[in-house]
Design a protein that fits this description.
- There is one protein chain.
- Strands 7, 8, 9, 10, 11, 12, 13 and 14 form an eight-stranded mixed β-sheet that branches. The chain has a six-stranded antiparallel β-sheet with strand order 2-1-6-5-3-4.
- The chain is globular and about 50 Å long.
- It is an alpha+beta fold.
- The mean pLDDT is 95.
- The protein has two domains: 116 residues, Aminotransferase class 4, branched-chain amino acid transferase, N-terminal domain (D-amino Acid Aminotransferase, Chain A, domain 1), CATH 3.30.470; 154 residues, D-amino Acid Aminotransferase, Chain A, domain 2, CATH 3.20.10.
- The longest helix has 14 residues.
């Protein structure tokens, strides 16, 4: 069962609600961040909460003295240790800040906040061995530095493709990111991924890039071209829940030999081996 902290207390998520007057419902004004929990310990909690704060400020949601972020950080820590935290504390904490009920000329001065603790969805060892397919779209994410609740474009573009994992944004032939993840290709001895600004500053993305460079990989930060997919040796996505996850096809284009490759396997191994460095103490 999912649980939620709202209005000063924890409750079953299905019993929690916000007013229909909140601008998160009326106009889609809201930001969030997803923090993975490993055995009751949050992954890169400080980095995630700093990004949530940045998203709120870019969305012109007024955080006042910033105490909301401090309170939500404490809520994540407390919720992670509760006996009713889903999956024994191996789940996702989603921290939301809404636009609230007041719009002062595009500035949202009375935000609400809550944190939902829920299962991240099953990923099996077989998923990492087989890899996934993505569906390319010419659309792009609006305001990529803001982790907004508005995923409508990506959800629409991915609809009806039952064999794909999520959509891949490719505006003007340049690959940026997927609906919920950072995207990488491996080609000619390089790992290539779009730069922050063109894409969200992915927390796992940054850690994987750091680990890759520390271990001798050449990482190039630029938007890969769609035309490069057919020449790529490997591709993968990263996120808090998926960690380092192989991609074996984009649309009709098979990546490499159609199987997860050694670079992805090595980066996943490095991530797992260094995971404790980023767990909340």
């Amino acid at each position: 069962m999912s649980i939620c902290f709202i209005n000063g207390k924890f409750s079953p998520a299905g019993q929690c609600c916000i007013p229909v007057t909140d601008l998160v419902i009326q106009r889609g004004v809201g930001v969030f961040d997803s923090i993975r929990l490993y055995g009751g310990k949050a992954f890169a909690l400080t980095a995630h909460m700093k990004r949530l704060e940045k998203s709120a400020r870019l969305a012109r949601i007024d955080l006042g003295d910033g105490s909301i972020i401090e309170k939500m950080t404490g809520v994540v820590r407390e919720g992670a240790m509760r006996p009713d935290c889903p999956d024994g504390g191996n789940c996702i904490a989603k921290a939301y800040i809404t636009g609230g009920d007041v719009n002062e000329g595009g500035r949202f001065t009375m935000p609400r906040h809550f944190v939902i603790f829920e299962s991240g969805g099953a990923l099996s060892p077989g998923d990492y061995k087989e890899g996934v397919a993505l569906q390319p779209t010419n659309e792009g994410r609006h305001y990529p530095l803001t982790k907004s609740i508005n995923y409508l474009v990506g959800l629409i573009e991915g609809a009806g493709h039952n064999d794909i994992y999520e959509c891949l944004y490719c505006p003007d032939g340049k690959i940026t990111e997927t609906l919920r993840s950072s995207f990488f290709i491996c080609r000619e001895g390089k790992i290539i991924t779009a730069p922050v600004g063109a894409v969200l500053d992915g927390i796992t993305r940054g850690i994987v890039i750091e680990l890759a460079r520390e271990n001798g990989f050449n990482v190039e930060e630029r938007c890969p071209e769609v035309s490069e997919l057919a020449k790529a040796d490997e591709a993968f996505i990263t996120s808090s829940w998926k960690e380092v996850f192989p991609v074996v096809r984009v649309g009709d284009t098979v990546i490499g030999n159609g199987k997860p490759g050694p670079v992805v396997a090595r980066l996943r191994q490095l991530f797992k081996a260094n995971l404790d460095k980023w767990l909340d103490k």
